[in-house]
Design a protein that fits this description.
Blueprint lengths: L1 H32 L16 H6 L1 H4 L3 E14 L2 E7 L4 E7 H4 L1 H9 L5 E10 L5 E12 L15 H6 L1 H7 L1 H23 L3 E2 L5 E2 L11 E4 L4 E5 L4 H9 L4 E9 L11 E10 L3 H20 L3 E4 L2 E4 L5 E4 H9 L9 H10 L10 H12 L8 E7 L8 E2 L2 E12 L2 E8 L4 H16 L10 H9 L4 E7 H9 L18 H14 L11 E2 L6 E3 L9 H5 L3 E11 L7 E6 L5 E6 L7 H4 L3 E5 L16 E2 L2 E4 L19 E2 L1
Parallel strand pairs: 3-5, 6-10, 14-15, 20-28
Antiparallel strand pairs: 1-2, 1-4, 2-3, 4-5, 7-9, 8-9, 10-11, 11-19, 12-13, 15-17, 16-17, 17-18, 18-19, 21-27, 22-23, 22-25, 22-28, 23-24, 25-26
């Protein structure tokens, strides 16, 4: 009965929302009929922003100002009203009196809705309660909002809706806007610092015939005019080094690159990369530049050289630690790769420590695997990890004293790789041999291996001076500077799976009601599923027999949060909404099928009445997620994904 009442309540909410939206359209049509169409206004002269007025009240009190922004609050009190207008920098209150703006304008104002964009001209004053405000002399409707903003106290909280409708997210969540203001400051700070060091900003092609300079799979496209297949760049490196050959001694580029890889809290398939190259220096010069650059940006953006990210505090004021990869593995894994004689011995070590490797891997590859497994998570304070094995560094100059290693470092903070730098390889014959090795790796199954770039080899043959180069991931840098938990939080428009038009329309309507697609859901309490078309996922085949499975109680759950379990390549940890007030947290071994970011906000099936047992995916009360492996012939479907219109807690028969 409670579930039925809940459905009726949600249905009523959606009906009310539709009626409110229609009222807004009616108001617009009335304005247009009366010759007051706001969409015919082409400009409005703004003299001040909200914070300018508040910060300079003493000099502006009693003076006329003009502001414009979105009305976020309105309180009508007979002949006088108050409203709050939000602009780029904040909010300011306006006092609107009938006797001041006139009866007709005041009557119009009373019909304006939260979300409408207003222009307000008036004099600066302070209310009896001490709030700096504008005593309005004119109020102009500049744009009519025909949708409903999320409910003001809860804002736009649904993660999926926030990323898809960033425009609403920016309106409702002040901290989100602040993040992107700081992102802009990060990029402008980089430019100021590098320009001051004599670097020149340049632009290089995004569409290329050979996507090189990094280990990544490219996106591919077709250029109709030339009837030629092209790729989106995965790096900025090879073209920038061509410019060093051409005599541009210090160059950098800040641009988008594209890598055909998965999504998680630190990866997006298109992201912003900054690469710079400086002639007549090496990777030690790049370390010095990185230290100084990071300190400068932190001070400019946050006002301090001490950064807080999550539970960690990182001190950029001290000299950054410098350690070789071999010494780092020795320090944290107690294994000295200087004493590992060859690839066979390295593979044996990997097996003893349960580190998975591929047949093609050599000693240097396995050293890197040990580093990733045992070292990265400990590198919280700023650290340069130097001298990487040659097998993983195809574009880097060898160390003269040991040709098995190269003059390369990765910069780490918070356990993350933040930058990658080389003493650049400028020997064209050595570079050709490296490309040939990469071609063999590609033939052996490494889809991220580089391909031979003949024009780049020709450039090296012309002659490139000794050069230091580095690449910075701007998105991770912004995450660090803004204490943002996921890369999508610092991308205005992150990559999202496209919703079908009907689903997208429904989701937009629901988010408009109160910011939560889940809360605005309207649907029947049960769904028909033919269990003859359902197969048990192999992972659980030994634990759940089909008879038990087919008689189980299926319920819809919403995945509210999902993250990878540290040091596990299989487990994901879910926070689920099963239609009750209590959130469930369970584990499921499906990481090989899905990245955590893909699953947040999804609606899927769970079994809720299996007997308690120690088993991946079942909590102490018998809830199993990811029991469905194949449904209706769609092989490889690891979770039975359902339409968002089905509410959490609904039973499936």
């Amino acid at each position: 009965m409670a579930e039925q009442n809940n459905q009726q309540k949600k249905g009523g909410q959606q009906q009310d929302a539709n009626q409110l939206i229609q009222v807004r359209y009616d108001k617009l049509h009335e304005l247009q009929a009366n010759g007051k169409n706001p969409f015919e206004i082409t400009k409005y002269d703004v003299t001040h922003h909200s914070t300018d007025i508040k910060d300079n009240f003493e000099s502006l009190e009693g003076h006329e100002v003009t502001v414009a922004g979105r009305m976020m609050f309105k309180r009508v009190m007979g002949k006088a009203s108050f409203c709050n207008v939000q602009d780029l920098k904040g909010r300011i209150q306006a006092y609107v009196a009938r006797d001041e703006i006139g009866e007709e304008s005041y009557a119009d104002f009373k019909k304006y809705d939260v979300g409408d964009i207003l222009g307000i001209k008036g004099k600066v004053f302070k209310t009896q309660t001490g709030e700096i405000s504008i005593h309005a002399q004119e109020v102009t409707l500049l744009s009519k909002s025909l949708q409903i903003l999320p409910e003001k106290y809860h804002g736009l909280t649904d993660t999926d809706a926030r990323y898809r409708q960033r425009y609403v997210d920016l309106i409702m969540n002040e901290d989100v806007k602040d993040t992107f203001v700081k992102r802009s400051k990060v990029i402008s700070s980089i430019r100021r610092y590098l320009d001051g060091q004599g670097f020149m900003e340049v632009e290089t092609p995004m569409l290329v015939s050979n996507a090189g300079g990094a280990s990544a799979r490219p996106f591919e496209t077709h250029f109709n005019a030339l009837n030629e297949d092209l790729k989106l760049r995965i790096s900025l490196e090879l073209y920038l080094k061509r410019l060093i050959v051409g005599g541009m001694e210090r160059v950098y580029e800040i641009g988008r690159v594209f890598r055909n890889e998965g999504l998680d809290t630190r990866h997006n398939p298109e992201f912003t990369l900054m690469e710079l190259y400086q002639a007549y220096t090496d990777y030690h010069g790049m370390m010095d530049l990185t230290e100084n650059l990071y300190r400068y940006i932190a001070k400019e953006v946050t006002g301090s050289e001490i950064l807080t990210y999550g539970e960690h505090t990182m001190d950029l004021s001290k000299p950054f630690e410098r350690i070789t990869m071999v010494d780092a593995v020795k320090k944290y894994a107690n294994i000295d790769f200087n004493e590992v004689p060859d690839t066979a011995a390295a593979k044996k070590l990997a097996e003893e420590h349960h580190i998975e490797y591929e047949e093609r891997h050599e000693k240097g590859d396995i050293l890197n695997l040990f580093f990733e497994e045992y070292v990265e998570e400990h590198l919280i304070q700023p650290t340069f990890v130097m001298d990487h094995p040659i097998e993983i560094s195809p574009l880097t100059k060898m160390k003269p004293e040991d040709p098995n290693y190269v003059e390369r470092f990765e910069f780490f903070m918070n356990g993350w790789e933040m930058a990658n730098a080389y003493s650049e390889l400028n020997d064209p014959e050595d570079q050709r041999r490296r490309f040939e090795a990469q071609e063999k790796a590609f033939a052996a199954g490494d889809e991220e291996a580089n391909h031979t770039d003949e024009d780049f080899l020709n450039a090296l043959a012309i002659g490139m001076p000794p050069t230091g180069g580095i690449g910075f991931g701007i998105d991770r840098m912004v995450m660090m500077m803004t204490n943002s938990p996921a890369i999508r939080d610092v991308l205005l428009f992150p990559t999202m799976k496209t919703l079908d038009p009907k689903k997208a329309e429904n989701k937009a309507e629901k988010a408009a009601v109160n910011g939560s697609a889940e809360d605005a859901t309207v649907s029947a309490p049960s769904v028909q599923i033919d269990l003859s078309k359902v197969k048990i996922e192999p992972l659980f085949a030994d634990d759940v027999d089909f008879e038990t499975f087919s008689k189980s109680d299926f319920r819809v759950v919403k995945i509210e949060a999902c993250e990878a379990v540290p040091k596990s390549k299989k487990l994901l940890k879910f926070t689920l909404n099963d239609g009750t007030d209590r959130k469930r947290t369970i584990l499921s071994g499906i990481h090989e099928y899905y990245e955590p970011e893909e699953l947040v906000g999804k609606t899927c099936v769970a079994i809720t009445n299996l007997p308690p047992r120690k088993m991946m995916g079942i909590d102490s009360e018998g809830m199993l997620i990811s029991a469905v492996y194949e449904y209706d012939g769609r092989e490889g479907l690891n979770l039975l994904m359902l339409d968002d219109s089905i509410p959490a807690g609904a039973k499936l028969y």
